[in-house]
Design goal:
InterPro entries: Pectin_lyas_fold (IPR012334), Pectin_lyase_fold/virulence (IPR011050)
Keywords: Signal
Helix content: under 10%
Number of strands: 34
Structural class: mainly beta
Strand content: 35-45%
Bound molecules: calcium ion
Length: 425
Amino acid sequence: MPSTLKALASAITLMAVASTAHAAPFRVTSNADSGAGSLRAALASGATHITIPDTVGDISISDTLVYEHTDALTIVGNGQTISGGGAGNTLLLISQGADLSVSGLNFDDMREGGWQIMQGGGNGILVDVPITREGMVSVSLANVSVSHTGDHGVHVFDCDLADCGAGGGGGGNGSPASVSVTLSGVNIDSVGTGQFDADGVRVDERGEGSIYFQAQNSSFVNVGADGIELDEGDEGDVQIAAQWLTLRGNGHYCAVIEDLENPEDPTCVEDDDGELVLDLDDGFDIDEAGPGSIVGQIGNSTLSFNLDEGLDLDEEGPGGFDISVQRVRAFGNYDEGVKMSEADEGDLVAYLRRVVIVDSNDDGAQIEEEGAGSLDVTILGSLSAENAKEDFKVTQETVDGDANGTLELRNSIFDNLDLENVVQL
Ligand SMILES: [Ca+2]
Ligand SMILES: [Ca+2]
Ligand SMILES: [Ca+2]
Ligand SMILES: [Ca+2]
């Protein structure tokens, strides 16, 4: 072969290798922690579509599995468990904010006796979003479980502070990107029990961009902090579509503390008008701050025995609420069953239909609008009873001659109702 042709042929071969290195599916053939055919090798190779056939068994790892490429990654498992052996490492880290799709895998940082207060631990899945990321960071999990991690079960982190805190009040900057999380058949159990404020699924979104959260047929139980926490700051909305969720027994990390003067973890204790109280957490918690609204629907879901509110939605800055809650059961929650709190400029529009709220240790449902704006609440065919305070409490703060808010309440069962600057239609 003439040398020029030879060079061309080898160039074509190189090009073929270069393009298939990214395009070809990587089939994992070994359940070893590392080495040829392992999941770790697959992630390092830059493969974007990794399958783990059912001939490969559970995978025990001694260190975090890291994907440091930027191309969207898909991992298709067949029910294998990635086990951290209680070492407290994050199990899967997407370090450059690549889109992630995982199906058919379990993540479990098993530790003898579970993770206890102040012991730390890692995340199940952590997607770390660089400050330069643009567009949409998409995280999609189907038939995935995460259990027994000391820190968050799943964490999407678009914030430049190590500890981002809640909402815009917690501060921090983030990338221009939005975050989309889609969950189907996801079970999060007994995570977040090794450190303060560690949630089942946690999204921290700062800077421009919104949070788009879709979940169905998924459960979030026995989490140390919130079952789900979505924190959106700066420009952008929180848009939710949630169906068939179970959020039970979450928020108990601090509950083991008996001596509030000398707590095992000082971050657990807060001063509430001169009285020391424990900071306990919710079933489903959304904090939206800065310009933007909370929009969407929650249906066919159960929120029970959470140690703070069952459903806790807070909006501040410009923007409001446009929320529908249907066929939701909230019982045995230690604070309100359902709480919606709108502050600053913006309206609160909420529609509750066939909602059952019982045995809340505070109000059944508390819905409040503050600052400029109006309140428009519709409650149909619902029941709220046996709650420690009001069954329905709907209040509006009137400013600058705001008209009163309106409540349409039909075909519902309750014992007491507290309205403030709200007219019942
Ligand atoms: Ca962002
Ligand atoms: Ca934002
Ligand atoms: Ca807002
Ligand atoms: Ca308002």
